[in-house]
Amino acid sequence: MRAMIKVTSLSLLTVTMIGLNGCQSLKSKSLFGKKDEVKAVKAENSEQGYYNEAQNNLSKGNYAKATANLNDLRTFYPVGEYSEQALLDLMYSQYQHGDYLDAVASSEKFIQLYPTNPQVSYAYYVRGVANMQTASSGVLKYAKLNPAHRDTGYYKLAFSNFQELIAKYPSSQYAPDAAQRMRYIYNQFAESEMQVARWYIKRKAYLASANRAKWVFQHYPQTPVVPEAIATMAYSYDKLGMTDTANQYKQLLKINYPDLLSNDGNVLLENTRSAGDWLNKLSFGVLGKSEKTQVNDSNATGNTATKPQVIQSVQQAMQLQLATTQAENEQLPEMAQPRKVNLGLGLPEEQ
User: Fold this and answer.
1) Are 180 and 299 in contact (CB under 8 A)?
2) CATH architecture, domain defined by 45-107
3) Least confident segment among 19-23, 325-329, 343-347
4) CATH topology of 45-107 equal to that of 187-280+322-331?
5) Fold for domain 187-280+322-331?
6) CA-closest candidate to residue 229, choices 212, 243, 247, 245
7) What is the Cβ-side half-sphere exposure of residue 60, based on CA atoms within 13 angstroms?
């Protein structure tokens, strides 16, 4: 018992001595040796020195080195003058280096530690953008695949992040770009549902295709795939022999989308998918450092939108909701199911 008390006291003394010097940390040479050597590691630079070195590396695009500088700064000077700004720069550096999960973690840490910081909306923004890119790393990111046909898990998370940002900070300089990204994600979910409907059409499962298209029509009415959803319902009900129902949707097509009907009243599904129809033709704001790169109104909306238009865009985004349930509980045949592989959720290249 005395030996145990002696060791505990020694440990407390060691921690206390190190705690008195903010520029030291513990380093153990061995995890399993009987006599682990424990020594204090002193900071090799001043707080200002770490910060200046980090800024120099950031300006040169040396993001790995900048990340190391900023981590050292926060390790040795956790409550220093630059601790908050260092964390903002850290999430930016991690994002630029492709360490998206780390950027998300740093953003969430900043939100938790500094909720009243004037730049906290930047942390909310970085978290959402990083979550959109989380699955983009790896070899499969180079596959030419419509993002809507990929695993949508991180889209949901990013949508929620942006939703929280514009709800808490609707006047933030990052809100317009967040609103556009929400619109993009919203459209991708609708496109994902329509991809399933097309799969059913090819296999002549017309009831299933009609139900899936109806789901899109009801839950994603503000998306570019709505004309195709209506045409799919008209086509599917026609094939099922439900003529009256099919004619109702054909009438809707005739009024709103006459190009989707032939002269003899047949649905032209091939006309519903024009090239690039599923894309949001937008230029998203470029993620920059919190104190310099501000996503202004013109960059965030992809054009020279006026301030009222930007405000309207944000307000409209607040009304968007992702459907939380499936149209049906049908299961695709095991061997024929579309692959659910994380091929990345990066935004498509500008065309």
Assistant:
1) no
2) Alpha Horseshoe (1.25)
3) 343-347
4) yes
5) 1.25.40
6) 212
7) 11
Which residues, listed in sequence order, are joined to residue 27 by a DSSP beta bridge? Answer: 39
pLDDT, one tens digit per residue, over 33-70 is 555 555 556 777 888 999 999 999 999 999 999 999 99
In the chain, where are the structural domains located? 45-107, 187-280+322-331
Helices (H), 43-174: 47-60, 63-76, 83-96, 100-113, 120-133, 153-168
CA atoms of 45 and 65, how far apart (whole Å) = 15
CA neighbor of 157 nearest in space, from 135, 180, 176: 135
Alpha helices, DSSP H, located in the chain: 2-19, 47-60, 63-76, 83-96, 100-113, 120-133, 153-168, 175-202, 206-219, 226-239, 243-256, 297-301, 307-318
Question: Tokens for 132?
Answer: 């959109």
Average model confidence (pLDDT) across the chain = 76
Coil, strand, or helix at residue 107?
helix
Question: Per residue in 117-132, pLDDT tens?
Answer: 999 999 999 999 999 8
